[in-house]
Amino acid sequence: MTTTLQRPAGTEVPRAVLNPTYLRLDVRRVLRNRRTVVFTLVMPVAFYFAFGVSQETGADRAYAMLSFAVYGAMVAATSVGASVAVERAGGWSRQLRLTPLRPVTYVATKVVAAAVVAVVPVAVQLLLGAVTGARAPVRAWVVGGVLAWLGSLVFAAFGLAMGYLLPSENTMQVLGPVLALFAMLGGLFVPLDFFSPTLQTVASFTPAYGVGVLAHHVLTGSGAVLGAVVNVVAWTVVFVAASALLFRRDTQRV
Length: 254
What we know:
about 75% helix, mainly alpha, about 0% strand
């Protein structure tokens, strides 16, 4: 006699927040996009060779190395988030809504995919710094690189919001210059000390400011750490809220 076990009424099998299959496909698709590779790897490397290698001291090269690690990571994370625009245009998002994939799983997978992709430009910049004479304490290399990587997740939410807002055919063309402006105002292309007091105040309210200050602080010991943390948290809340609002609006259209 065979006994069949049944779940009690009203209970459901818990579903994982992260979908490994979708994560693997998403990362692979992003890395196969030539435009994404140019934005996330080629441009930060070119910027480092143009502005970092020419620095006179190893400490200055290390500062530039961390700057372009932050820049490359934020562009990579934005690219992953913004890829939702392509999915919407191709009907992929609509197909996903017909599957058991929950919205929280979709968003969580996007964030993890952004983290996976963003680690690549950070690693490349640290390697470039090592072979071109960047000099810094080991702690600055490790902590600075980790902060550059983790801070980029703010821009995964930014990319998601823009992916729901902009048309697919020109999402990264629009966001590329925007991210470059964020990086400039955040002190990644030019140290904040070179800014006027007024411009420094304006810069402290921009999205890349907090991540840049935190990544550089372990090297220079300068910068308003508390203000940088508040900046990162505030922009994360803004971008996540915008992503949720635009996601809900997009879902209601189907």
